[in-house]
Write the structure tokens for this entry.
Amino acid sequence: MPGDGLRWEDGKSLFGPHLTRAALNGSIPMRRINDMATRIVAAWYQLGQDDTSTWPAPPPEGEGGPNFSSWTHEKIGLLHPGSGDKSTGVVNKFINAAGEGKDSHRPLARQVAAEGTVLVKNDDKILPLSRNGWGNEKKAWTGKVRIGVFGEDAGEGK
């Protein structure tokens, strides 16, 4: 997904205006651009975003469509960054995506976090783990323990 952290060595994103330039100068084949667009549009149809009775139409017919720009923090900006088109318009509507009041996402986020919490049973008082392995007299093995911690927030592996 664009913006998911894929970056050049200098830390700049491979997407956004860089992708636009690469498409315009031919360094990315048009079949790849078409594949990327097909994947986005397929999800758009899958979610029913073509149904204007559920989703508001984009401008000029309505107020729907993207409500933020990844390329500027200003309210008014380029509509097509990276291209030669210098047309400007409202690109950031500063929507509170977390919601407020009864529409707030906080209760759901808290519920998901609580349901994802893992409790560990401390059988045989093995916790906390020692850096020297487990030298418990109940266990014959005294070597070091190797443990894997997995997940998005697990940190860098060593």
